[in-house]
Amino acid sequence: MRLLIIGFALTFLTVFVVLPLILVFSEALAKGVAFYLSALADDEALAAIKLTLIAAGISVGLNLVFGVIAAWAIAKFDFPGKTFLITLIDLPFSVSPVISGLVFVLLFGAQGWFGPWLMAHGVQILFAVPAIVLATTFVTFPFVARELIPLMQEQGQQEEEAAISLGASGWTTFWRVTLPNIKWGLLYGVLLCNARAMGEFGAVSVVSGHIRGETNTMPLLVEILYNEYQMVAAFAIASLLALLALVTLIVKTVLEGRIEEGLHPDDH
Amino acid sequence: MTIEVRNIVKEFGSFRALDNVDLRVETGELMALLGPSGSGKTTLLRIIAGLEWPDSGVVTIDGEDALAHGAAERHVGFVFQHYALFRHMNVFENVAFGLRVQPRKIRKSEAEIKKRVGNLLDLVQLGWLADRYPSQLSGGQRQRIALARALAIEPRILLLDEPFGALDAKVRKELRAWLRNLHEEIHVTSIFVTHDQEEALEVANRVVVMDKGRIEQIGSPGDVYERPASAFVHGFIGESIVLPVEVRDGRVRLGDRDLDLIAQDAAAGPSKLFVRRHDVAVGPSGSGVFEGAVKAVRAFGPMQRADIVLGGLGGDILIEIDAPRDHSLKVGDHIGLQPQRYRIFADR
Amino acid sequence: MTAVAQRRSLPGFGLTMGLTITWLSLMILIPLAGLFVKTAELSFAEFWSTVTAPRTLHALKISFGLAFAAACVNLIAGLLIVWALVRYRFPGRRIFDAIVDIPFALPTAVAGIALTTLFAQKGWLGAPLAALGIKVAFTPLGIFLAMIFIGIPFVVRTVQPVLLDLDTELEEAAECLGASRWQTIWRVILPSLTPALLTGFALAFARAVGEYGSVIFIAGNLPNVSEIAPLLIVIRLSEFRYADATAIAVVMLVFSFLIIFVLNRIQHWAQSRSLATA
Predict the structure, then answer these.
(1) Do C218 and C146 contact (CB within 8 A), yes or no?
(2) Interface pTM (ipTM) of the complex?
(3) Closest CA–CA distance from residue B22 to any residue of chain C (Å)
(4) How far apart (Å, rounded) are the C-alpha atoms in residues B65 and A234?
(5) Could you give the CA distance from residue B78 to residue B70 in angstroms, rounded to a whole number?
(6) H or E element that contains C210
(7) Which DSSP symbol is given to B317?
(8) What predicted TM-score, i.e. pTM, was given to this entire model?
(9) What span, in angstroms and rounded, lies between the C-alpha atoms of B228 and A233?
(10) What are A180-238's pLDDT values in tens digits?
(11) Largest interatomic CA distance in chain A
(12) In this complex, which of A74, A195, A206 lies closest to C234 when CB atoms are compared?
């Protein structure tokens, strides 16, 4: 029985998870390292990498600030409707990526609420970088907040109260007491947020307009190259994203240990 | 530094945590707030500290309206039940925190901070732990560091929430004596919260007994033990024998028997008779108000504890009494029992 | 008696709460509300005919039906994987534990092209399967497999902590009372895991219904055969049939809300149940 279950678990994970991952790298290197590197150094590839970094940087930054603010309000205070508010923050997790893109098309598109006005004033949001940033921010909205809220709830507010009673201002208390206590959890949230931001496909695909060299992020470029049967180039870009995923997972595992340690320092 | 609390009301939802509480704490006192959990004692302490806000009422510290300021401006030292030491700072930085966050104008120099923290760590006798982190300390050490940290800001008053609550029995006893000595040394007006009567009676010079958001009695440890002001205080402090009685025409009745006891000032109606276990004189059968049969005897220390079945009261009532060792009690003995001191309180 | 202002022990509640609500409204609530307002531009008859058009209906059926089937597979496979990871010790256990998260972390487009290549007729797994007469890529079967891929971490990661926390005393008590191993699993362990299993199932189901990136490459995207609902939204958008796209989105969104509601009920139920036994 034991061997049967272990055998099943390992086979399942190997077929569905390990093999696709190995395949990405094997296809990327199918024509050798030189070809692989030249595929990455391509102008379009570089433009996509740059756009991905910009979009992820902005949306992660926004969600980082929001996440900390929301977690402070939700974890450190009691108020009616708290559970409902957390549900609202989690909402983007339950929305299809395509719909996440669609809502911005409806707002900023030619037939949208703000579209005509924006067009009249020469502001381009849809099919341009702003929409990509907005869609990415929408999709990654809950990551930081939902990581911090349970952590800060578990840590309680006694240390903050102690700091306040010792004469510290709210701001000082946050920087000197709260932030050091949540730093690993914060990093964890940012890490996951970033992985999703760089890898987001559906939402960005809907709002980007697929303008080559301008509004293609890395995942979008993967799609285009793949559909053009440029397999090695597609998998080369894909391998970068897969690498990002792997690094994210490794750092995540390390951070999980740190967070656990921070919560229960007595166990050591 | 005197503290005055007047007409404080605090509700959490529909639960009334504090119900019109009045209290005055004099300069240099070491006062205990004693009561069961849910009696409002911690809430009162947190209101004085500025960590909680009353629905109505007045709190003054040295005649100054404390409710006009938040906790940060009150200069009140607060020691938390679970210490609330900053886990990412070592002991030195924990104690120095209050000095480091002072406004730039009055902030001490690094050398002064170092000297003051050193003095405080000496005061709590833990100078050798300065570089350790809270997770590396024992419970008793954390407690003393938390106290040193609270004292660093030269607080006008010192508030301690269940200061020994999380410690094991032996450390608790040591720290009690230590806290009392420390208070004599620094003499800052102090209030501590406890649910442990022994702790309150042993450490404080005045005890406030609380129940259900009200103050039941304020008095010296001797007062609250010897002269409890209410049935609750009598039952909560010390161990008592409690018998349901009825006061009628100034007489005390139990069942259909007239007890030869004075009703004191209890109003007519159902009441409770309270007797300390050691305030019962044991004699031969017929020598007291009650008759009883010895059911079990446990001897330890200078006293012996006996289970007695009281007879002739329309159903057996089992009580426990403490008697000196020299009085021989044997299982099966029929004895007479006479309450030497007792209190009668009308049921509320 | 002076009036006392209601204050809180820590500062910043008003500010942080205000910012939270504002940003949440601007970023999430207003855009989502826009979706419903847009749908309201359709009359009910129009909405209904859009949603019940054969192509739409088929796409919805494919998305919901296959997602449900995939979630069922994940429920069972996930439970077995959790059991292996938590209860057994074997070499490479920690690595396999970490691997479970890859479908979470791997960008969906990458997963999509990798799965497609893997199961294509000449792929590593596609070739042997083709020899058996099974065609995976560009068929509904491919969609089904991709949905299993993205759903598996949801079941594993919700059930794993519960099984880890499960008091072994419970099992020991059952065994002392004479229960066989199977009885213990069936009557003691599985009921304790039920809320987590249901939660994992619902999360995997919801994710698979809305999934786009990992599915569209392997799906083949033939209308009325292997076209998923999110793709149909994209197609309608590219045809500038915004109202049609929105109508499909609303159906899916209502389903998402339903899942959230069900999840909350499960959580509520599990909490009240654990309180009752505490």
Answers:
(1) yes
(2) 0.92
(3) 13
(4) 71
(5) 13
(6) helix C190-210
(7) E
(8) 0.88
(9) 88
(10) 999 999 999 999 999 999 999 999 999 998 888 888 999 999 999 999 999 999 999 99
(11) 70
(12) A206
